[in-house]
Specification:
Helix content is 62%, strand content 12%. The protein is α+β, with helices and mostly antiparallel strands. Among the domains are: 1-85 and 128-182, CorA soluble domain-like (Beta Polymerase, domain 2), CATH 3.30.460; 89-125, no CATH class; 321-380, Magnesium transport protein CorA, transmembrane region (Methane Monooxygenase Hydroxylase, Chain G, domain 1, Up-down Bundle). The chain is rod-shaped and about 125 Å long.
Length: 389
């Protein structure tokens, strides 16, 4: 699928054919599904040459068509290339799981491997990404999205609604309402808006990850629980490392884009107004700050997981020490009792009290007295006192 939208000053229009030139006071946005990118590539190259001023490099075409390319930034003298990896949605995660299960059903020998890889709650299955590519010219934006991309779908539906509203606008009030929709003023502005929406999905995922880790932390710190889901916890920790690496790649790509735009600020101000340039810089800084927030939250989640594991094993060690201390105190109590019974077990005829009629009861009373005294001493020294749960 390919959608073509032309933006002008305060208005937009969906068109069926690729334009041969950009509007004088606007730009063109072309949205393409990655599955159809190769079939539309000749037409897109012609569009890039006529509207953008230069065809896309073959290497950049490969980057745009690749579904596994990491977040990346590159540029030429005519256009900028940005690859940004967005999180998959819950529906996409379910589709991936169903597809893998179907593959496993066909190849049952791989079932155990899939189980090991898919251990854990469903929220961590969303720590997976799809690549979205942007080729940003001065008057043209070409974006390549995965099939069914929610980001592109959201923007297309939003601008389609604006186009319908504009078509039926017959008075000044309706036109003013449309003007307040704040259409993008440049290809860079539109690209940053879409990237900002992708970054916000990371912030939304943070809430679910935090809730899951808090649940595990409470279970780990509960002395009466027997936590056995270690494989899921290890998988979660590995997924958090992957998420941190993804966010750092995104941060590097967007920071390079922002630095390049600042270096070319003099040229850009000639093409746009100072206010538009300042707005782009502010929006780009906002995107970078959002990514930094995501990185900070991910690292904090990693620290939470590590701390929960360390606290759990520390608590286990303390409980083991309590048990060993109690057993040692009991051993110390019964040691003199064993010594006394050992004396009476010797083969001596003249042992004191061995033939006394109350010798057994006096010996038992003495042993009980020793046990009580030692028990009181150990209790006061908290050797056998119960620790708080």
């Amino acid at each position: 699928m390919m959608q073509i939208v032309t933006f002008t000053q305060g208005s937009l229009q969906f068109v069926d054919l690729l334009p041969s030139s950009a509007p004088a006071d606007g730009f063109v946005w072309v949205f393409v599904d990655r599955d159809d990118f190769s079939s539309h590539l000749p037409a897109l190259q012609t569009l890039a040459q006529q509207v953008g001023g230069s065809a896309l490099l073959d290497l950049h075409c490969q980057d745009l068509g690749s579904a596994t390319h990491p977040s990346h930034y590159d540029y030429t003298s005519v256009y900028d290339l940005v690859i940004f990896r967005r999180l998959i949605t819950a529906s996409e995660a379910d589709k991936d799981t169903a597809s893998e299960l179907q593959t496993v059903h066909q190849e049952k020998t791989k079932y155990s491997l899939l189980r090991k890889r898919k251990v854990g709650p469903p929220v961590f299955r969303r720590v997976n990404t799809r690549a979205v590519g942007f080729a940003q010219f001065d008057k043209l934006l070409i974006s390549v999205h995965p099939t069914g991309c929610y980001t592109a779908k959201t923007f297309v539906e939003r601008y389609l609604a604006d186009a319908v509203q504009q078509e039926h606008a017959t008075n000044a009030i309706a036109i003013a309402l449309l003007a307040r929709s704040r259409l993008p003023v440049s290809p860079a502005d539109l690209m940053l808006r879409m990237i900002n929406m992708m970054v916000d999905s990371y912030l939304d995922l943070r809430k679910d990850l935090t809730a899951q880790l808090d649940h595990w932390q409470q279970e780990l710190l509960n002395p009466r629980s027997h936590f056995t889901n270690w494989s899921a916890l290890m998988t979660a920790r590995n997924e958090l490392h992957v998420l941190e690496d993804l966010c750092e790649e995104q941060h590097d790509a967007m920071q390079e884009w922002l630095d390049t735009m600042r270096e070319q600020s003099a040229t850009l101000i000639k093409l746009t107004s100072q206010a538009e340039h300042d707005g782009l810089v502010a929006r780009a800084r906002d995107v970078v700050e959002h990514i930094e927030r995501v990185v900070h939250h991910v690292r904090r989640l990693e620290h939470t997981a590590e701390s929960a594991i360390q606290i759990h094993f520390g608590a286990q060690s303390n409980r083991t020490n309590d048990i060993m201390r109690t057993l040692t105190a009991l051993t110390a109590i019964f040691l003199p009792l064993n010594l006394i019974t050992g004396f009476f077990g010797m083969n001596f005829d003249t042992f004191p009290m061995i033939r006394h009629p109350n010798g057994l009861w006096w010996t038992l009373a003495f042993m009980v007295f020793i046990a009580i005294v030692l028990g009181i001493v150990f209790w006061r020294k908290r050797y056998i006192a119960r620790t708080g749960r």
